[in-house]
Q: What sequence folds into this?
C-alpha cells in the first residue's frame, strides 16, 4: 500500500503539518526542489488534473487518493468499540446480580464517559471526509505566478510560486510528498501545502510530478505549454460535478498501480494480482467510504477575486476541459465496464461478508459455555442455495 490506513497529515482544522511553526531545516535541502529550475525527468500528472488551460492549472488535493479510508476505518472502530462495550455490559450485569446496584452506577458513569469521548473523537475524524468539500483544489496560475489553495478550513491561501521553499518530506508512518513551504525572514515555516501525488520513497515518480507542475509554471510559449499538455490523458472535471461511480471505482484502485510510475496509463501501471484479491474487502469498504464522502460533500469554489485573476480565453486551444486529450476516457461507463463493476461488487460483498463471518466465528470460539453455530458455514449455505 502507498499510505497508512488513516492519514491525517495536513487535514487538521489548524496546524497538523508537523513542520509548521518550526525552522526550515537545512537537512531538507538533500531533497530540495527549486521553482522555475528545470529537472530532467519525464512529466507525471498522475491523474490529478481537474482543469488545464493556458492561464491556470487546477489539481486535486493530496488526500484524494485515500478518500474514503477515514470513513470506513472509523465506522469499523465504532463497530468494534460498541461490540466491546456490549460484551463488558453483559459481564457487569452478571456481577451486579452478585454485588448490588453500587457497581452498576459506577460502571454506568464510566460507560457514559467512554461513549462521549469515543463519539467526539470519531466525529472529528469523520469530519475530514463527510459533509465537507469534495476536494480541496490547488490552482497554479502560470501568468501571475500565484498558487491558490483551499485548505481543510475552507479558507483560501495565496502563495508566490517563486518564493516557496520546496522539498520532499514525509510525516511519521506516511508516504513522501512534495512539500511547499512559505518561510518568513527568520526561516520559520508559516504555511504549507503539498502537491497531490505521494509515494513510499523518493524517486522518479515524485520528481516527475513536481516537474509537471514546475514546467507548467515555467512555460513561456505555446511550445512549452504543448509539452505539458501532451503529458495529460485524464481530466477529472469535479469542479463542475461530483465524480461518477466509474471514476470512484478507478480512483479507489490507485493503490494497486505498480510503483505508480505513470498512472495516466493504467493499462501499463495497474497490477491486479493476488495482493488485490486478498485486499478486495478493504477496497470495497474504501469504495463505499469514498461514495459516502462524495455524496455528503459539496463542490468548492474560489471567490470572485481569484476567478478574476484566472480569466481564460474562450478560444484557448490549451483548454483541455473543452478539448479533452482522450475523449473516450471521460465518457460514461460502457455496458462491458458496468458488467465488470457489478461482478467486482458482488465478489467484494461476498468476500467482505465471509471475512466478517469468520471474525464472528473466531470470537464465538473464544467464549465459554456453549457450542455456537458457524456463521461462515451458514453464510455459504445461503449462497450455495443449500436451504432450498
A:
Amino acid at each position: 500500500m502507498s499510505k497508512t490506513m488513516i492519514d491525517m497529515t495536513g487535514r487538521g482544522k489548524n496546524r497538523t503539518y508537523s513542520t509548521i511553526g518550526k525552522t526550515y531545516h537545512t537537512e531538507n535541502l538533500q531533497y530540495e526542489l527549486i521553482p522555475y529550475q528545470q529537472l530532467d525527468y519525464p512529466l507525471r500528472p498522475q491523474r490529478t488534473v481537474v482543469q488545464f488551460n493556458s492561464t491556470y492549472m487546477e489539481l486535486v488535493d493530496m488526500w484524494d487518493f485515500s478518500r474514503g479510508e477515514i470513513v470506513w476505518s472509523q465506522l469499523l472502530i465504532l463497530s468494534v468499540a460498541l461490540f466491546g462495550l456490549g460484551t463488558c455490559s453483559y459481564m457487569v450485569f452478571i456481577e451486579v446480580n452478585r454485588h448490588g446496584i453500587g457497581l452498576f452506577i459506577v460502571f454506568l458513569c464510566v460507560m457514559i464517559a467512554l461513549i462521549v469521548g469515543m463519539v467526539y473523537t470519531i466525529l472529528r475524524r469523520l469530519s475530514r471526509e463527510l459533509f465537507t468539500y469534495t476536494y480541496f483544489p490547488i490552482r497554479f496560475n502560470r501568468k501571475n505566478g500565484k498558487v491558490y489553495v483551499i485548505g481543510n478550513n475552507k479558507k483560501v491561501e495565496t502563495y508566490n510560486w517563486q518564493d516557496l521553499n520546496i522539498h520532499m518530506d514525509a510525516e511519521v508512518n506516511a508516504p513522501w510528498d512534495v512539500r511547499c513551504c512559505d518561510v518568513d525572514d527568520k526561516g520559520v515555516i508559516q504555511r504549507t501545502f503539498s502537491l497531490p501525488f505521494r509515494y513510499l520513497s523518493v524517486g522518479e515518480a515524485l520528481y516527475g510530478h513536481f516537474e509537471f507542475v514546475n514546467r507548467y509554471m515555467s512555460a513561456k510559449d505555446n511550445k512549452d505549454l504543448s509539452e505539458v499538455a501532451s503529458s495529460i490523458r485524464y481530466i477529472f472535471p469535479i469542479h463542475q460535478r461530483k465524480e461518477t461511480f466509474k471514476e470512484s471505482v478507478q480512483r479507489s484502485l490507485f493503490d494497486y498501480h505498480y510503483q505508480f510510475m505513470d498512472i495516466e496509463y493504467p493499462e501499463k501501471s495497474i497490477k491486479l494480482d493476488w495482493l488485490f484479491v486478498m485486499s478486495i474487502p478493504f477496497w470495497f469498504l474504501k469504495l463505499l467510504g469514498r461514495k459516502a464522502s462524495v455524496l455528503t460533500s459539496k463542490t468548492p469554489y474560489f471567490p470572485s477575486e481569484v476567478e478574476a485573476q484566472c480569466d481564460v480565453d474562450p478560444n484557448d486551444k490549451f483548454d483541455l476541459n473543452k478539448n479533452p486529450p482522450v475523449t473516450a476516457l471521460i465518457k460514461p461507463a460502457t455496458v462491458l465496464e458496468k458488467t465488470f463493476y457489478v461482478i467486482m461488487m458482488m465478489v467484494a460483498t461476498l468476500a467482505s461478508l465471509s471475512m466478517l463471518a469468520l471474525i464472528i466465528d473466531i470470537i464465538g470460539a473464544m467464549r465459554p459455555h456453549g457450542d455456537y453455530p458457524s456463521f461462515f458455514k451458514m453464510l455459504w449455505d445461503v449462497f450455495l442455495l443449500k436451504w432450498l
